[in-house]
Amino acid sequence: MKIPLFKIYSDENDVKAVSEVIKSGMRWAIGPPVAEFEKKICEYIGSKFCVVFNSGTSALHSLMLAYGFHEGDEIIVPSFTFIATANAPLFVNSKPVFADIESKTLGLDPNDVLERITKKSKAILPVHYGGDPANIFELNEIAEDHNLILIEDAAESFGSTVDNKMTGTFGNSALLSFCQNKVITTGEGGAIVTDSEVLYNKLKLIRSHGRVDQGDYFLSSLSGNYVDLGFNFRLSNIQASLGLSQLEKVERLISMRIKIAHYYSQRLNAFKEIITPQIRPNIRHVYQLFSIRIPYYYRDRLIEYLSQNQISSKIYFSPIHQTYFYKEKLKYDVHLPVTETISKEILSLPIYPSMTRDEQEYVVRSIDNFIKNFESDDKV
Ligand SMILES: Cc1ncc(COP(=O)(O)O)c(C=O)c1O
Questions:
Q1: Is pLDDT at 235 greater than 80 in this prediction?
Q2: Distance in Å, CA 180 to ligand 1 centroid
Q3: What is the CATH number of domain 12-248?
Q4: For the chain, what is the mean pLDDT?
Q5: What contacts 4, CB < 8 A, 6 or more positions away?
Q6: Are 127 and 151 contacting, i.e. CB atoms less than 8 angstroms apart?
Q7: Residue 179: per-residue pLDDT
Q8: Is 370 in the pocket of ligand 1 (CB under 6 A)?
Q9: 215 pLDDT band (50/70/90 cuts)?
Q10: Is the distance from the beta carbon of residue 57 to the nearest atom of ligand 1 less than 6 Å?
């Protein structure tokens, strides 16, 4: 049995959606499905505006530009995240300032965020780790009290909720990712959701060459007006069609993930060595990742053992402030005790909607075998 960390869920509707665009022989780049995908994301998330991008990273970059962040500005970010979150301020010569996480949600710790605020602070950029909402009410309150912009990095949390309200609707704006390991996917892709029309208009210009289009650029005889500096960060029409088809089944995909996660948790809670994700009553965790914590003296050996048994697992995440780039090149010298401890213990196990009960059972049994055979002498 070979069990990957994730598998993409796709069906005939996905194939049909993509084939239709391909067969049309036209409009592979831009076309009505792009706007339709944006409209459907707004309806699903509960936001007024959406702009889709060709990745979550280009969405992040665009946000930094749209807010006008520049040299001297500071953006508070977690170190326990994918590198793009921290890199985003650097794209516009601003400074990412790392704050620690708290161990319940694995998201930014509001108390530590407070400690990091300076006169230069402009925004807080919390991440909903692996689909588990961060402590968003407190973070929002801090942002409001200190006149900071709250941008939610909801790349991993499409569909997760707090008090029945979607992540991505709590801050001033949020970015989403549709990369292949996310809750729904267009291969590569991303989006920004916001209720701000001003931001929305800026983002549309940044996405496509600073151009005010007059109809479909490629089909129109008019070339549009270039009013600002922009990029080509567009999501293709082929991808948007796929996104629409994926979005139609998102609730089913999330239910499948939750079911697997609950089974994992119930089985793994039997091991005193393992901490499973906390289930909180007002939260819907969508389990883009299913991450356990296990003492560091087991963790790396467990990765190896699982790998020998054809099971993939992965460390999401190692601290960004300790990467070569941040530590050696950018000379970051910060100590984030919770981030550093948790990243030594964290391990993401395989999870994907089509994962069978046999596969789940095999993963649990392998962990059981590992722990039983682990020699206590090996603890260092
Ligand atoms: C927390 C977080 N932020 C940002 C991104 C960037 O998204 P993308 O890979 O679509 O560029 C990711 C993707 O892995 C992510 O996990």
A1: yes
A2: 10
A3: 3.40.640.10
A4: 96
A5: 312, 350, 352
A6: no
A7: 98
A8: no
A9: confident
A10: yes
